[in-house]
Amino acid sequence: MSWDGGWYLNAANHGYPNHDAIGTTDARVQTTWAWPPMYWLIGRAVSIPLQTLVFGPLGQETRGLSFSLLLVNVTCALLAAVVLFVAMRQLLGVRGSVIVALLWAAGPASPIFLMAYTEGLMALLVFAALWAVIKGHWLGASLLLLGASLVKSSSPPFALALIIAVWIAYFTGKGPVVSRSRALVTTFIAVLAAVAWPLIVGIAFGRFGALAEVHAAWGRTSIPFRDTLAAIYRGPGNFPAQWLFSIAIVVVITVTGILLLRDRNYPWYLRLSGFLLPVFLLFMSISLSAPRLLVLDLSLPVLERKFIKGLRAFVFIMVILLVVRSLWIYLFPGGTLGDPAP
User: Fold this and answer.
1) pLDDT for position 261
2) Do residues 302 and 274 make contact, with C-beta atoms less than 8 angstroms apart?
3) What span, in angstroms and rounded, lies between the C-alpha atoms of 176 and 215?
4) 296 vs 110, 141, 152, 160, CA distance in Å?
5) For residue 285, what pLDDT is reported?
6) Which residues, listed in sequence order, are joined to residue 27 by a DSSP beta bridge?
7) What is the mean pLDDT of residues 316-335?
8) Residue-level pLDDT at 214
9) For FRET with 77, which of 43, 107, 186, 234 sits at 20 to 30 Å CA-CA?
10) What HEC string does 291-316 produce?
11) What is the pLDDT of residues 46-74, one digit of tens each?
């Protein structure tokens, strides 16, 4: 329940505060408006029967909500691995898709699925959108990404990947067939998915750019790449190990994203999303939370699979992932509450 988990618990208990709570330009106040609502709303809904059947007496509401938020994340992460297997099976066969799903589930930041975070639900929707694209259900994919936009603010790279992919399919005629009208509707919904939460916050506050004002309470700016360049310029600061670890993960995922983009054996949507997610992260802000934010990127497990020719290679790669994952636990969740969030 540490870090962002406390904010989700706060939102599940109290919802969103009055928009005046963000404060003035000179004194920003951190509020739950920074996080979209779908995850904590589902957690609240799940907690209602659990409260009655398991936790019982009054006064245990917070405990019931905490358990529900954890349960939603763990369950959705499990379902996401299953959906990833099903989606990749058409491309790689049963053995290849099992390996990709296992490699993804063993990723460096996979312990985040055991915390009250949105990554499990986000992965489920994003991988379901991939499955829909592979099956040629472009509208279904765009609607899934629209739902993902209400879970986490990292939906834009997937929405942009879908827009590019659907028009490539339309103009080239390769891959799943798509009509012009369906491509237009898919594009419209995908654009909406990219801007849904900033638009909702702007309407609630009555002014454009309100979400940027909310994020400013955490010292973030809305200028592209500025926070990334500032973070690199400042250097590791008080957290050298975490800083170096996060930089290394970003570099690895960026390289694997470029390599996947060049691989014509995979559909455009998968190739583009694997490349655009780290670019989006650099665009917004490279932070100590980078390993967690990149848990949705499939370029690393997809490329790792190519090196697995037998059981020994599989075990070797899994051991490496175990070491990296243990390091992530040690540096982030295993630290004190004063350390950076995972």
Assistant:
1) 92
2) yes
3) 39
4) 10, 16, 11, 15
5) 76
6) 24
7) 87
8) 85
9) 186
10) HHHHHHCCHHHHHHHCCCCCHHHHHH
11) 888 876 766 665 545 567 888 899 999 99
